Amino acid sequence: MHVHHQSPGQSADSVTIIEVGPRDGFQSVGPYIPVETKLDVIGALHAAGVRRMEATSFVSQAALPQLADAEQVLAGVGALRGLDAQVLVPTVRHAERALAAGADHLSFVLSVSERHNYGNVRRGTLASVNDLMQIVALMPCGTRMRVNVATAFDCPHEGRVEAGAVLALVERLALVIHDAEFALCDTTGRANPAQVAALFQAARDRFPQIAGWAFHGHDTFGLGAANVWSAWQAGVRCFDAAVAGLGGCPYAPGATGNVATEDLVWMFEQAGIRTGIDLGRLAAVARDVVALPGAQTGGRVRDALAARACLPAGTVAA
């Protein structure tokens, strides 16, 4: 099965959910998760119908020891038929590692906020734009690129990010590569549905040459699914989510993870919008993920389904 990025001709009643638990979720877990366990989770997600996944990240092994096994994970997922496995790369050096390991779908990240970019990848935003330029020059024919624009709505250091700053950065990036998917990321989970709709509408109107748009949201204030729905109404058809809402940070009390994959599958399927993902099988994977030592999870649908399954026949709730 080939998953299409959003395009003008894409069906209005289908959506692509990109599972980021194996990267954004696992990186927040302190205790090391063995490669076999990571591949088991990825395999079970694939069996549930997930066809696009951020499988791992090629980053500093000292900074993120949880993802030091990126080469092994990427090699392991190669056997999963029809899986589009993208890998996150923050710099040229790590992109070279990913390409050498056989990656054919790179996911680059940089922040609108200069301060956040320094904290995240140890360089200024324009230096990251230059990195992207070098990576694009390295990419073999047939390699795909996704550009993640972090802090597109809010910065943990500087607060709300103005739409004009986001659009100015996207303009620079679109000169480097326009046939990539561009993801606007709610890094802190502080975005609201009105802000999400307005920014995507402005971006899609201003950059018709950009091949596709995606939204990466967090559920910090309980608005993850609402923000996704708002982006959907603004024409976005690709959404990041993590199984069991995996994410957060053990060193930041109150921080929560990505919007839960099972919550988005429930929301879209209830609205008659096809995800291609089996909710029952997905919920079973989510329950296994919740049991991982050190995992911080979220989401509502998993528990709601479990509670409904336990109701005795004939029970009527007020």
Automatic annotation (TrEMBL):
The keyword Lyase belongs to this UniProt entry's keyword annotation: yes
Ranges where the Pyruvate carboxyltransferase domain occurs: 15-283
Alphabetized GO MF terms: hydroxymethylglutaryl-CoA lyase activity; metal ion binding
Alphabetized PROSITE patterns for the sequence: PYR_CT
Pfam families for the chain: HMGL-like
Alphabetical keyword list: Lyase, Metal-binding
Top-rank taxon: Bacteria
Gene Ontology BP term (one): ketone body biosynthetic process
Similarity comment: Belongs to the HMG-CoA lyase family.
The name this protein goes by in its record: Hydroxymethylglutaryl-CoA lyase
Organism expressing this protein natively: Hephaestia caeni
Record lineage: Bacteria, Pseudomonadati, Pseudomonadota, Alphaproteobacteria, Sphingomonadales
